[in-house]
């Protein structure tokens, strides 16, 4: 019943979690891929495309997660997040800048009161293989440095071994360590092997208190795909119907073009519904997507494409 379902009895043991998660409806692989492909062929009108491009820009978590990241690079990225197209002040800013925890302070200082959030990856990103106390310390350090959002990674080995309660309890503990920061739970769907596992881990993360469920770290291929994201959108839709709670979705990795982004927005609208067409409930984790969105936006405004080097290369 919406707004009143309790999962306390379900999460009391690994056996009860297993029964619940394996009792979820199975995913028809052929049907899911066919529906995702069909949604990906939808076209939108020119006026809707202008709106969709601006919405997609507002949904971007502009990301740099490299060992060679420097304070200067993070400052430049944060500046671009606030003013993606300096030649067009009507261009919206992005949702967040996503960095490693040691760069949170630099990003926070640069972004100031702009309204662009700072997201930090944590919990032994990207492997998720570390002791829980290390994961919690990683999270607390990022929050204390000013992170507004934490992108944690689950222990995929534990999940695939059927240790659902371990994964559940880690998410609960990280959520508590986040304090007021929002928690995005990364699945690394490219390692989960089946669509059934994607559905199961989506419910597991939502039941554990994640604010967002996220496909990938961007370090493993395949990363985000339209069928996987569609299954996650079905999960958040069904979870709201069961509990009254909305959970966000973030595909990350491999989304590089405005055309791809619009396919995802169409899928969001058709599967979860228009309530999710908002940066509070849907994000793109990306480093190169923003430039193509800006190029397409400029084309609609001026009638011509700018060169690929017109905008900064990140």
TrEMBL record:
Its EC number is 4.1.2.4. One of its GO terms (molecular function) is deoxyribose-phosphate aldolase activity. It is an enzyme of class 4 (lyase). Keywords: Lyase, Schiff base. It catalyses: 2-deoxy-D-ribose 5-phosphate = D-glyceraldehyde 3-phosphate + acetaldehyde. Signal peptide: none annotated. InterPro entries: Aldolase_TIM (IPR013785), DeoC (IPR011343), DeoC/FbaB/LacD_aldolase (IPR002915). GO terms for biological process: carbohydrate catabolic process; deoxyribonucleotide catabolic process. Pathway: Carbohydrate degradation; 2-deoxy-D-ribose 1-phosphate degradation; D-glyceraldehyde 3-phosphate and acetaldehyde from 2-deoxy-alpha-D-ribose 1-phosphate: step 2/2. PANTHER family: DEOXYRIBOSE-PHOSPHATE ALDOLASE. This is Deoxyribose-phosphate aldolase. It comes from Nocardioides guangzhouensis.
């Amino acid at each position: 019943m919406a707004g009143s379902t309790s999962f306390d009895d379900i999460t009391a043991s690994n056996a009860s979690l297993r029964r619940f998660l394996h009792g979820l409806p199975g995913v028809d692989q052929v049907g899911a891929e066919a529906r995702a492909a069909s949604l990906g062929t939808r076209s939108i009108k020119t006026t809707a495309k202008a709106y969709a491009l601006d919405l997609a820009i507002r949904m971007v978590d502009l990301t740099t997660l490299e060992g060679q990241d420097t304070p200067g690079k993070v400052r430049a990225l944060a500046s671009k997040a606030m003013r993606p197209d300096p030649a067009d002040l009507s261009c919206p800013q992005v949702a967040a800048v996503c960095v490693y925890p040691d760069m949170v302070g630099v990003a926070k200082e640069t972004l100031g009161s702009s309204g662009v959030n700072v997201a930090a990856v944590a919990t032994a990103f990207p492997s998720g293989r570390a002791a829980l106390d290390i994961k919690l310390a990683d999270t607390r350090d990022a929050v204390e440095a000013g992170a507004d959002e934490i992108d944690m990674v689950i222990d995929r080995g534990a999940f695939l071994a059927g240790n659902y309660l371990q994964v559940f309890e880690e998410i609960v503990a990280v959520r508590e360590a986040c304090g007021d920061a929002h928690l995005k739970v990364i699945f690394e769907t490219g390692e989960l092997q089946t669509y059934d596992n994607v559905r199961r881990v989506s419910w597991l993360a939502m039941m554990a208190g994640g604010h967002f469920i996220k496909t990938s770290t961007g370090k493993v291929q395949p990363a985000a795909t339209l069928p996987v994201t569609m299954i996650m959108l079905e999960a958040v839709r069904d979870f709201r119907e069961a509990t009254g709670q909305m959970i966000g979705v973030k595909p990350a990795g491999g989304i590089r073009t405005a055309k791809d982004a619009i396919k995802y927005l169409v899928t969001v609208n058709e599967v979860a519904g228009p309530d999710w067409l908002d940066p509070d409930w849907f994000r793109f984790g990306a480093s190169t997507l923003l430039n193509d969105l800006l190029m397409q936006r400029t084309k609609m405004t001026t009638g011509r494409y700018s060169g690929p080097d017109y905008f900064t290369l990140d």
